[in-house]
What does this fold into?
Amino acid sequence: MKPGIPQGTRDFSPEVVRKRQYIFNTLRTIFELYGFQPLETPAMENLTTLTGKYGEEGDRLIFKVLNNGLHETTGDKRAKLEEEWAKVLSKAYSSPVVTERALRYDLTIPFARYVVMNHNDLALPFRRYQMQPVWRADRPQRGRYREFWQCDADVVGSKSLINEAELLGIYTTAFAQLGIPVAVKVNSRKLLQGLSELAGHPDKMMDITIALDKLDKIGWDGVVSELETKGVDAESAAKIQPVLHITGTNTERLDALAALFAGSESGLAGIAEIRETLHYYQLLHTDQQANGSEIVVDVSLARGLNYYTGVIVEVVCTHPNVAMGSIGGGGRYDDLTGLFGLKGLSGVGVSFGIDRIYDVIEQLNGFPTQLTSGAQVLILNFGGDNEAYALAILKQLRADGIAAEVYPDAAKFDKQMKYANKRGVRYVLLPGDDERAAGAVSVKNFETGSQQLVPLGELKSVLG
Amino acid sequence: MKPGIPQGTRDFSPEVVRKRQYIFNTLRTIFELYGFQPLETPAMENLTTLTGKYGEEGDRLIFKVLNNGLHETTGDKRAKLEEEWAKVLSKAYSSPVVTERALRYDLTIPFARYVVMNHNDLALPFRRYQMQPVWRADRPQRGRYREFWQCDADVVGSKSLINEAELLGIYTTAFAQLGIPVAVKVNSRKLLQGLSELAGHPDKMMDITIALDKLDKIGWDGVVSELETKGVDAESAAKIQPVLHITGTNTERLDALAALFAGSESGLAGIAEIRETLHYYQLLHTDQQANGSEIVVDVSLARGLNYYTGVIVEVVCTHPNVAMGSIGGGGRYDDLTGLFGLKGLSGVGVSFGIDRIYDVIEQLNGFPTQLTSGAQVLILNFGGDNEAYALAILKQLRADGIAAEVYPDAAKFDKQMKYANKRGVRYVLLPGDDERAAGAVSVKNFETGSQQLVPLGELKSVLG
It folds into this structure.
């Protein structure tokens, strides 16, 4: 039997784990600096917590866990079980008798569920971050996995736009630290509502939003065609177009929008909340933090999820060598916890697309080089007294905080050197008879190829 | 609908996540110092990878994931599906047509599977550590969860006892750093084999091992009764007893054992490998590293898993206030990857019981106090110009690397102070009119109750 792993899942080798940890640690440090708190929820949720939250497509793509002990079911329950099995085979997809647990599908619904279960004990507003895997039974393809990591930061229980500004700051600070130049696009659902009023179809906000979301892919003509199928004729659609062509600085854009939306209450409210968000952002951040990044007001930004109600954001990498879709996004939602019976809690959050961010940093050669191999020092093992000498050196190095390993067997020299090469260490130490007699060790630098005899007392400064 | 989470799973609140991270980070730092490399494997494995690896009990306790798209199955395949469903309801527990994936049950089998899939690219010996959740459909009870974390370190591809010594060192170093006094019990499967020879039943090693494993629980009389049911009479069993009563230093114990096992090849081999392991351990470690911990040769240590072949170890906390079973264990196995067709790779590994270690540190009050609340500084929000002033202070603190947050709304003073209390911050900053006029801010220390006016230029030294 040749072993494998399920389609759409991945083993992360040591080098990859280290690079991923570098991303997680960078984000964690920033979240903590901004006063956000870590939360972790179980991989399995009750299926009832998840179903109906992600649309019909989502219900189908949730990984369901088979109940255990089914073989012990007897009598009436057994008959019931057969009946319920039919539901799994129908459009119902599931039955609690067959499957009552499912794998986490995103981090937002478990967060809402957690807030509802714990709101009496939580200090509100609650600012939390969460970095965990999620699972979806999507068709795997390049860059899309069945197990992938989400990383979310949300504030729940406050309507202040300071929260939006802080989340924008988390984005610009994080991507600056990760060495990724980005544009953080900002829009408001209220402006999109204003657009539908401008088009004379205030009831078609979602249709217009969904069509606009495809602007990059299908062009303006495509958007017009799609809108016509939704009952928005070309003449009405044309009223939207000028708004999408606004250029200039953010202030210039907002001023131009204010003129175009003069008659739309929603539109003006959207402009006002973007202005206030940017104002708070500027009070909180220096230009250095946003080094290489920019915040851009973009009325064409739509974002598909229909629970957003206020400011929405999306991050794209602006480096000319990188062609990648969105690497982050989020926005304000007014009543997420209402799904679980707790009304009136407003929230706002952003998400980091860890897998894509990883790919972008890789393309930009942006991972710190010292991440790749872990311990940089291998001590060869020449057996007998030289082995004991090797272990004494190893003990000293570790006491000095230098990660190191010894080849555990007195194997042939060639075999040990082959290991050193494959392992990718930087220094190989050769503790032979002569070295031992001299209280020193030969140090071979694999990068330069040079070799020198180093007294033990100087090892730390040579290797550290 | 009142939301909940599946039985045996847990939400980890911010404080708990931080404490867990402290354990993981402590272990990670030591693993890296010892030259071990991180590995992560998918939560879902092919069910065929897992079945048959954990005994019949294990097969039943594996969480299986229902295949997706079952509702789309038609025609002949539909009939087949019904047939296969019967297998799920039988002692077969599963069928690939209904469930072909399952949740990780431990970290050892996925590690073996990874080594077999990648052995051409791996530098052998491969030293890896892995810290990930596993899932078992066990009956939940106090301290036993359906989702829990394992943390393993293994070396595969080397028979050298230096590896055993390094793993012992990882144990003593880790528990010393975590502030847990422990006894690391050491034995060898070869000594257990010797015991069965001593009893005159060389073929009953596993029966004797399993009975001895219960010595703490059922006492010597219980062991004798159990052995009688396995065909080892009381007279034979009595030959083992003196071995279990050996005391003294490790050297004294080993000398006494050498005399008792004079006629047993296995027994002498076991004594020799323990001696060599302890010798290597002493070459590699100072007494300070094992501060509060001790390594104890213990012939009654059995460990249930039947894949161990050489040295076996187990860790128990020796603090008088802590009553807890094993918090770690491991040993050498000679052919783990043989399960997946790769013969002849010897391995040795140890495991840390993260959940129990967490409980022990909690009982000993051993978590660093600064872990509990994250950001220690809350800036109150008095609105208008004072809000802008609050944000300017926040910007300065973060630039100085001090984690801080502002209350995002200009809410009533009482409400903001109530938040500060519930949130558990250490300092509250009050930027009002007077403070702003003075270029300073009032700092209230929640621990001491004292309040002082601090010029902005001195904030860092007061809060840092």
About this structure: The mean pLDDT of chain A is 92. Chain A touches chain B through 108 residues (CB under 8 Å). The first helix of chain A runs from residue 14 to 33. The first strand of chain A starts at residue 37 and ends at 38.
